[in-house]
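Q: My labmate handed me this sequence with no annotations at all. I'd like to see what the chain might look like in three dimensions before we decide whether it's worth expressing. Could you predict it?
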Amino acid sequence: MSRVRTEPLDWRTRGLWLPDRPVPPANFASARLHLFEAPFSWPIMVVRQSALAANIVTVADYCNRHGVRHAPHCKTTMAPSLIAAQLTAGAWGISAATANQALFLRELVVPRVLLANELLDARALRWAIGEIERGWRFSCYVDSAAGVAAIEAALRDVPGERPFEVLVELGYPGGRTGCRSIAELVEIATHASKVDRIRVAGIAGFEGALPDVMAARAFLRTMREAAVAAATVLDDDVVVSAGGSSYFDVVVEELVEDWLHDKRVEVVVRAGGYVAHDDGYCAERTPFLRHPDDGALTAAVRVWAQVLSVPEPGLAIVGMGKRDAPYDEGMPVPQDVRGLDGTLRSAAGIKVTALNDQHGHLALAGVSVVPGELISFGISHPCTAFDKWRTIPVVDDDLRVVDVLHTYF
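A: Here is what I predict for the chain of 409 residues:
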């Protein structure tokens, strides 16, 4: 991780009030400032250290117990220190969604990267091939002859001997990328296997957008059938990758056993949102609801915002909007209110009904708040939370800052 350099905290750092001089992040963290002491301003997003650490260990232990590899998706946080913690916990590699995310991970010296997407950009392909020649473990998806042709052309431009690993992606009608049938997947896998320096390392898919366990199970069984159908052109050690944060238990149930003839199957799940979890979308879909004895995740993120106005009965306006908290998979979830005297009380009876760019509309049911009070909000869908904040204080359970996360979206 030594190739990443962090910037000092200063007037550019949202959520902090530093008008005078820059402060090195390490110095800021070592001061162990309380969240409700200067120099914080509102809104601010913080993450709880104990929850992050526990979530990382919980999923790492789950994967170890159930015989699957884990390549956490970096798109959730794009935070070097959290990626380092995931690798230390035993991650097989790190997943990425774009070429720029792969470049970011290479700068972090992550040894193995799975680009869980198609890659047809000639410049990015040539760069990746060059890095592979230097010993980097990198693979990406293909789902078309055009994708194979793009890689083949880039290989001609970059001399070398090391193979370029691809996973042939299976999709489903109405979904995003991926071959739409087993026959199409076998055709693309066969085509790719005939290209010099391309190694068909396995197959992949994404079941996380499917509506329920039954649909996810059916898709994963089709993935298994596809791997069997394409077995003759797959590598001897076959990577089969699936499993976002919603259905990795179904991946274990459907894919972890000896089922691919005489080949060794390495199942790789790509769950990423688990690291911060949430109080909405992920909390309602985590596999640990179905298997409570296998572990539990804790929401790590809180956005603190100030009540700006109570303009009419039953309505309050806070200084938190679309630029500050995710809203694509549900509104922020009120947790606590900090009164003007510093005491905390439950935010039960408060609901976020709308977000503007910088304002949140709160419906008050049998409760009251006054301007100047602070409200903490849990979030729904962590994968669209971290990208809103370049610098995020990490707090202990007493809300004292113990570290600072830097994100690189």
